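Second opinion, please. Pick holes in both lines of this record:
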Amino acid sequence: MTAGTSAPSETLDGPVLRAEGLAKSFGPVPALSGVDLLALPGRVTGFVGPNGAGKSTTLRILTGLVRADRGTATIDEVPYAALSRPSQVLGVVGDLAGAHPGMTPRGHLQTQAALIGVPREWVGQVLHETGLHDVAGRRIRGFSTGMKQRLALATALLGRPSGLILDEPTEGLDPSGIVWLRRFLRTFADAGGTVLVSSHVLTELQQVIDDLVLIAGGRSLWSGSLADFTAEHASLEEAYLSMIEKEMACAG
């Protein structure tokens, strides 16, 4: 499977993704108790935190899947639900639970194109961009996890959005796939797009992000440039562990 092109050819006008004071509880269990987030055009923003910190809940609120109890989450100053054509503003790379395993990538994307109202020819474009054109006629049931990740990205790109949200996008990718994705995201942002990526792979994340949002225990601990966050440490991983240890000590 070849890598395909790694960049949008056009200049992008990425949206500003913003969350302020998010709070959310599920029954008696608080998931968020004060999360702020900012992702800007032309930047790759990393979203990190321990398991159970509230990252997935934050992203689900930002993309309109969950309603916050308090606080605001906006895309260019409006909630996701208020966007007239959301798939053409923000692509969300999630799992492919809704994709029929008996379908082909081309068939799946053609169905999605009809649902979101974009030209059918865009299917071929995203197949090439994500390196799936050589396997576009195969059944999804035979795909590896990494190939499914590429198809999830292709689905997110189908509306030609200027913003991307990715949750653990390197899961299942081989080393060459990880390098390809890193280059894709970097070039997407350099073209003016907005990228927000949540990942546990800090060593890989450090190679592509410009800014960092760190949460723990459902609240924000840090938001700013990667350079500032790592200024006194050898790596993102070292700086992350140092801050998390301090937070745990204070909480204890």
